[in-house]
Design brief:
Pfam family, one: Abhydrolase_1
Helix content: 25-40%
CATH topology: Rossmann fold
Number of helices: 5
Distance between the termini: 19 Å
Protein name: Hydrolase
Keywords: Hydrolase
CATH architecture: 3-Layer(aba) Sandwich
Structural class: alpha/beta
CATH class: Alpha Beta
GO molecular function: hydrolase activity
Number of domains: 1
CATH superfamily: Alpha/Beta hydrolase fold, catalytic domain
Strand content: 15-25%
Length: 213
């Protein structure tokens, strides 16, 4: 299998140094495979970066799964697209010779990362979820024992409300994930506080996994 054969349009950048685990970058609505590359380089310097483009179009804007309205999700599509993304991760690991990645997702990208964690826990080594919310009304109990998850929420976020964020935290924690949740003085957009928190969290992941490729 070559890069051209993989099921998602994507960018792959190999690791510049040994140590950091590979990072799966998952953009928000309207982004593409280049959107989060600068963020990935900043928070996980030297790590391999794998950045796919969402395959759903909402009025021309790429997303990772369908929604019926703001905050109302097509859960059947969420499950199907999470499976598609899990298969892509497996393809990419074989093609590029990398270990299980840690996801770094923003908004819609954070939500599909959480869905993959809960539905296909073997696909990811952990996740940093920036402005996530619950997208599954009845999430499965997955085996996430020992997997680190960072959740960064905005105190004034009009999209990812506190009840939905709390529901996601409960689902991940109940599955055994080691969840760190921070509520920042922010709205739905990212700030320098997100950059600082994510950078510190990824530095700890690199220190914990010195032999990752």
């Amino acid at each position: 299998m070559t890069a051209r054969d993989l099921s998602f349009a994507h960018v792959f950048r190999p690791a510049a140094r040994p140590g950091p685990p590979p990072v799966l970058l998952l953009h928000g609505t309207g982004g593409d495979e280049t959107d989060l590359l600068p963020l990935g380089e900043a928070v996980a310097p030297g790590a391999a970066l794998l950045s796919p483009r969402g395959q759903v179009l909402e009025r021309g804007a790429p997303r990772f799964f369908r929604r019926l309205a703001e905050g109302v999700f097509d859960e059947d599509d969420v499950r199907r697209r999470a499976g598609d993304l899990a298969r892509f991760i497996a393809e990419a690991r074989e093609t590029y010779g990398i270990g299980a990645p840690v996801a770094l997702g923003y908004s819609n990208g954070a939500n599909i990362a959480a869905a993959v964690l809960l539905l296909h826990p073997e696909s990811l080594a952990g996740a940093a979820l920036l402005r996530p919310m619950a997208v599954l009304s009845d999430p499965p109990q997955a085996n996430l024992r020992g997997k680190p998850v960072l959740m960064l929420s905005g105190a004034a976020d009009p999209i990812a409300g506190p009840d939905s964020v709390a529901a996601l935290e409960v689902a991940l924690t109940a599955s055994g994930a080691e969840v760190t949740r921070e509520i920042l003085l922010a709205s739905h957009g990212l700030t320098r506080d997100d950059l600082a928190a994510a950078t510190a969290w990824f530095a700890r992941r690199a220190a914990d996994a010195p032999s990752s490729s």
